[in-house]
Amino acid sequence: MPKPRLPTDPPGEMPTARPADPITRKAQIDARLQALSARTELQARKDHDRLTWILGRMVVEQMTHDPALQAWVRRDLPRHLTPRDQDRGLWQILFPDDAKD
Predict the structure, then answer these.
(1) Rounded to an integer, what is the distance from CA 83 to the centroid of its chain?
(2) Three-state SS sequence of the chain
(3) For a tag on the chain, would you pick the N or C end, based on fewer CB atoms within 10 A?
(4) Who's near 17: CB < 8 A, 6+ residues apart?
């Protein structure tokens, strides 16, 4: 006869016996909570990155139609760029007509 599933067993996994030692049980629960927290934080970070990407894409598309937005980006973007060559190269992608280094 198969072992009955315990309410704490994750779906799809073989049921496990509960440890007799409460300290061991607490350690297992803490490990599960930590893993769940890490997955939740990772998903939140992915969601934030995706939202940032979508918003950035929208701004880039709108810049071609809105001179005021383009002026705002020209004025404020440089303070958000780092001195790294890769970040500075992004300026040339957005504003190829600028002779800025």
Answers:
(1) 24
(2) CCCCCCCCCCCCCCCCCCCCCHHHHHHHHHHHHHHHHHHHHHHHHHHHHHHHHHHHHHHHHHHCCCHHHHHHHHHHHHHHCCCCHHHHHHHHHHCCCCCCC
(3) N
(4) 3
Q: Residues 6 or more apart from 91 whose CB is under 8 A from it?
A: 77, 78, 81, 98, 100
Alpha-carbon distance 16 to 19, whole Å? 9
The tokens describing 92, both together, are: 């040339």
What pLDDT does 10 receive?
A: 62
In percent, the amount of the chain with pLDDT more than 90 equals 46
pTM (global) more than 0.85: no
Question: Distance between CA 44 and CA 49 in Å, rounded?
Answer: 9
State yes or no: pLDDT of 31 exceeds 90. Answer: yes
30 token code pair: 């803490």
